[in-house]
């Protein structure tokens, strides 16, 4: 799938905002630790992906009712849903000068259709964006880091009206950010997450 930038300026995918707060000490410290063993942008991006996928729990998998939405809070609490984990990964990538944005899928895997969050990144010298899914693996879910071939948690099933959105957002869409910021707990968030964009 060919991805398109929401903003024509790649600098928008390096900027900090309220959610992707990569200037925050929690993000800077995590980025510095990950960079210690990375000898290239690819190695750093892979390490950041593995860190978010494997050490930040998906709150639905663990039953954690806390809602996180700002990258620094996700890293501090070590929990979040796919959107929060994607925001954290985007912040870690931007902290090291790797353009990163947010992408989405509309999935019908539960009681109601839901928006699933992914990350798009553009490594130096790459002529295109690549999507990765830091959601977190579990039985039946095996997302891997790959910029050559997508290895996402889920493949969209068009027969169930699932959708791969091709837009790479520089910041979380307002309707999604509103739901994340205003939910008192994860149960309320599930009720209010948008079903699509």
TrEMBL record:
Q: Name one Pfam family in it.
A: Transglut_core
Every copy of the Transglutaminase-like domain together lies at: 31-134
Do you know which PANTHER family this protein is assigned to? Answer: BLR5614 PROTEIN-RELATED, CONSERVED INTEGRAL MEMBRANE PROTEIN
Q: What is this protein called?
A: Transglutaminase
Q: Which organism is it from?
A: Streptomyces violaceoruber
């Amino acid at each position: 799938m060919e991805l398109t930038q929401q903003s024509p300026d790649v600098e928008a995918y390096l900027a900090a905002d309220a959610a992707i707060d990569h200037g925050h000490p929690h993000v800077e410290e995590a980025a510095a630790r990950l960079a210690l063993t990375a000898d290239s942008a690819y190695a750093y991006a892979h390490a950041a992906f593995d860190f978010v996928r494997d050490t930040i729990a998906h709150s639905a998998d663990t039953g954690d009712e806390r809602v996180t939405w700002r990258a620094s809070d996700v890293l501090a609490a070590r929990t979040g849903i796919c959107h929060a984990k994607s925001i954290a990964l985007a912040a870690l990538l931007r902290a090291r000068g790797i353009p990163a944005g947010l992408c989405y899928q509309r999935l019908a895997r539960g009681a109601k259709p839901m928006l699933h969050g992914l990350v798009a990144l553009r490594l130096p010298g790459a002529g295109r964006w690549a999507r990765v899914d830091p959601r977190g693996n579990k039985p039946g879910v095996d997302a891997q880091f790959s910029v050559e071939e997508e290895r996402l948690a889920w493949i969209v099933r068009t027969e169930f009206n699932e959708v791969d959105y091709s837009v790479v957002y520089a910041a979380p869409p307002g309707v999604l950010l509103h739901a994340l910021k205003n939910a008192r707990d994860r149960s309320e968030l599930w009720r209010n997450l948008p079903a699509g964009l």
